[in-house]
Amino acid sequence: MILSNTVEGVLFDIDDTLVDTRGAFAHAMNVIAGKYLPGVGVAEQPKVLELWRADPSGYYRAYTRGEMTAREQRMARANQLHETFGGRNLSDDDFEVWDAEFMAAFRAGWKPFDESRTVIDTLRSRGYRVGALTNAGLALQTEKMRVCGLSDVDVLVTLDTFGVGKPDPRVFQEATRLLGTEPGVTAYVGDEPDIDALAALGAGLGAGIWVDRPGARRGGAHTEDPAAVARAGISTITSLTELL
Ligand SMILES: [Mg+2]
C-alpha cells in the first residue's frame, strides 16, 4: 500500500504533480519559438521545451532559494534559450514584451492531470486532510489552482511564506502545521525527488512519494535515479491514482 495506515494528511506539489505544467510550457515554448526563434523547425521544438524544463544553470532553483526574483530567473532562462537556438539577446524592454507573451501562452495551457480532481476527492472522502505545498509564488499558484478547479485544497503553502521554498525543512513543517497533522503522519507527493519526497523525509514527514510520469523526467542535474530514490525509502508511482 502506498499510503500506510498511519498517514492522516497528504501534501501535494502542484507543478507536474497536480497540474500538467509541462504541457503548459510546451504550448508556451511553441508560441515563443514561432515568434522569436525562426531557425527552430517543428522537429526541433521539443528541444526548446527540454532546455526550458532542464534549466541547466539552475536559475529557477536560485529563485526558490531567494537568490533571484521570479522575473530575473525567467529573463535569464529566456536569454539562455535565445542564445542556444539563435534568437536575439533580450534587453529589459524586450523582455517585458516576451514575458507578457510567454505568460499569456503559459496560462492558456494550464490544465490539471485527468486524475487530480478524483484523487483529491477520494482521499478526502476517506478522511485524509489534503493540501498543496509549492515552490512558486502565491498569486500565480492561487490563479493556477482556480483555473484547474483545484482551489478547494485545505492548505496552500507557497514560496511567499518564507521567501524560500523546498527543500528547506521549514516549509514542510509549516505546511503540516496548517494542515493540522503531525509531520510523522503526513505524506508528501511530488515529481522532483530531491526537493520533494527526499526533502520531505529530511523534514520529518512520515512518507515521501515520487510521481514519475512516463516521459516527464527533466534530465541534467535533477535527481531521477529510481534505484537511489528507492534506497532512500521513497515510493514511486506513475500516476496519482496509485495513491488510492
Ligand atoms: Mg513539481
Automatic annotation (TrEMBL):
Gene3D superfamilies documented for this protein: 1.20.120.1600, HAD superfamily/HAD-like
Source organism of this protein record: Populibacterium corticicola
KW Magnesium (keyword) present: yes
A GO molecular-function annotation: hydrolase activity
Protein name: HAD family hydrolase
Cofactor(s) the protein requires to work: Mg(2+)
Keywords from the UniProt entry: Hydrolase, Magnesium
InterPro entries: HAD-like_hydrolase (IPR051400), HAD-like_sf (IPR036412), HAD-SF_hydro_IA (IPR006439), HAD_sf (IPR023214)
The EC number(s) this enzyme carries: 3.1.3.-
Domain of life of the native organism: Bacteria
Cell membrane among keywords: no
Enzyme class: hydrolase
Annotated Pfam families: Hydrolase (PF00702)
Entry-linked PANTHER family: 5-AMINO-6-(5-PHOSPHO-D-RIBITYLAMINO)URACIL PHOSPHATASE YIGB, N-ACYLNEURAMINATE-9-PHOSPHATASE
